[in-house]
Structure formats: C-alpha cells, structure tokens
Amino acid sequence: MKAFIASVVGFAGASMYQSGSEVQAWGSKPAFSQDKFQSYKLIHVEDESHNTKRFRFALASSKTRLKIPVASCITLRYTDAQGREVMRPYTPINLVEDEGHFDLVVKCYPNSKMGSHLFSLKVGDSIDVKGPWHTFDMKPGQYSKIGMIAGGTGLTPMFQIVNNTLHAPNKTKISLLYSNRTEGDILLGKELGALAKEYPGKFVTYHCLTTPPRRWTGYSGHISKAMIQETMPGPDHRGDSCVLVCGPPPFMKSICGEKDYSCSPPKQGPLEGYLKELGYSESGVFKF
User: Fold this and answer.
1) What confidence score (pLDDT) does residue 42 get?
2) Rounded to whole angstroms, how far apart are CA atoms 117 and 105?
3) Residues forming the annotated binding site?
4) pTM of the entire structure?
5) Which end of the chain is more exposed for a tag (fewer CB within 10 A), N or C?
C-alpha cells in the first residue's frame, strides 16, 4: 500500500503554490477541488509502526485518477467539539496515475489535534479535503542526481518524489539517508527495499539509527558530515543535482538550518549547518 504527507515550501525561487489552472491541467476531472472542501470516505486503516497509521480514502469513483503533480499537498479539515475548524496539510505519495483512492501516512504526536482525530476515525467515516497545492516544480529527469536526508516522518514527502521519479522514464539517480531512533520507527521500510531491488543503480537507502539493535549494519548515532559526504551527491553549482531535507526542527537546524517562519508562507531561510560547512549552495538545497 502506498501513502501520503505534508509539505508547504518553495525551491530556488519557485512560487509557493501552482495556480488552480496549472494543477487541473493534469486532468479534466480533478480528484480534488481547490475552491471548496469535499468529503472523502475512509475505506482502509492499517498500522505502519507503533504510533503511525496508513489511511486509505476513496475518490469519487474507482476510475477517478489521482492526477496530482509530484511534490504537492492537500489540506485536511474537521470541526472539533468546540465548533472550531482544524486544518492541516498532508502530501499524497501515491503514484500520480493511481485510481480510486489516495493514501495518507500519519504519525500521532502528543497534543496533535488532526493526528488524534484521524486515529479516531473508523472505516466508513469521512474527512474534508481541499487542494492540491503544488509546492515546487521538479520534472522527471531535471536532475541527474538527487540526494535526500530525512528524519522520522520527514520521509513521506521524499517517498512521493522517489516513487514517482523512479516510475517515470528518466536516468535520475536517488540516494536517501534516513534517520530514526529505532528500527521499529522506520516508515515504509518494505516499500523502500522493494524500490531499491526494482531499480538497482538508480535508488539506494542508507539507514541511520540513534538506538540501533545488536548486529545493526547501518549507520549509528546522529547524522554527521561524514555520513553526508559518503551518501549524498557532492556540492554542485551547475544545477545538475540537488539535496532535499525534511525532519523535525533540531534535525533541520543541524543539517541545513531551519526555514524562516517569520513570514507566511515561510521562506527557505539561509543555508546553515552541515550542508553549508560542506560547501553546498542555497540554490542546490531544498528544505521541506
């Protein structure tokens, strides 16, 4: 089963969102509306980890294609017991050609209103959705190499890009450095392994655990500059490669610096952390 998640960003000067006409050019009958919220029924739920679930929601019909641009998100909404609207973005990581459904991978953090609400849903319940919002342009084959550094649920926007890029005709090579606390926290592990086997030489995942089990053969501890040098494409000022980063605030601060949240929508902010120290440029790094 494939999945979805959230990102609201711009890359190398790209606009925050594509217009409705640009997004809907993907198909005459879009799966979602940018003008109004529509209700979608939950048809399947399964555990992804001890605190993460996958949710599958039905589209209008079994023949409705998802047809959203790669690297785009949707907005979910519900009304709480006090009558207040709660909204949060999530990014579908299904293949854009999938029909009849969309999937979400959601981790329930403490005090997360939307996460708690989604975890309370039963098959047959519904959620309101609006979108999609295209976050940045990245066409298949645009880069010869893509490096990805993800922490925890920061994997989800990466997986959407990996899944769709590998299934499109191009020669792009992707390397993913993925950090978690324990082996049980790894999300979409089976899917990542299957893609690596299906596309040898084009996709590789390097796992890093801060609390590894015995006989662990991957990286241990927190991601370091040495790990980045060993797994990521080197600094490229010609625009032929890029490095994407997504994770919690402390993770982002150490790897590339946090985004600038002083404005709305937030900007990329200056490049800092390990990637700056290793000589990468702001134009070649994208922060989710």
Assistant:
1) 99
2) 14
3) 88-90, 105, 107, 113-114, 156
4) 0.86
5) N
